[in-house]
Amino acid sequence: MDIVKTFNQIRNSPHLKSESVGLVPTMGALHQGHLALIRTARLENDVVVATIFVNPSQFDDPDDLVSYPRDQERDLALLEQEGVDIVYLPSEDEIYPEGFDTWVDPGAWANKLEGVVRPGHFRGVSTVVTKLFNQIQPNRAYFGQKDGQQVAVIKHLVLDLNIPVEIRVIGTVREPDGLALSSRNQQLTPQERASATVIYKSLLGALQVFRAGEMVAEKLRDSVLDILLLELKQEQIEYINIVDPDTFEDRQNLTGTSLILVSVRFGKVRLIDNLTLS
Question: pTM value?
């Protein structure tokens, strides 16, 4: 496994001359969700590139950036075990060199939900992903469905800017009790961790109501809220929304495929999850 840290090193890697290259961008603190992306990429490509870069421009809270979990030695061991060919570990100066002043703005439709709670988040995501696509030029890039709005942003980014990369979305990987795997889960207290299982339970509750024939979005949102409030306080719930999965326009009636998204907060730790209603 090659470990490279600069643009020149990654561009000159003989691995990138292979017929197909799969890219898995990460911020480290790897878990089984990341490894599911790696394994799919390994099956579908001749070469797999993983990146580890904690992108400062997508954090609106400096304390959140400082506290983000990091364990590079463990991450590298996992990536080698999974047969990754190249790990790209750029520094902040490598991605944002002195004088850097060009940003990718995904547009007003992304300034809702996560875009409201985390101002500038998708601007940072879109910019760093565009740079990684340009630097590595993969055939395919792999993202997890847990970050549903991010997936939509990146799909539109690739479409609008004519970036020749296939976006592959892999289903959310969960703990046995249903909690979506996240690098932030390790920051929860034992009591918060136990309470966090209510997030997936609330989504499953909405799915059950939907399958029973309910098509009114407001009533489905109410069903999610009722379940969340069994474990959480109202002020912990940041949003419950049902949207079109491509445009993220709010759904009033579920006449087509929809995505229901939930965000809750445990102190400074935010957890998000989503489920497709189809």
Answer: 0.94
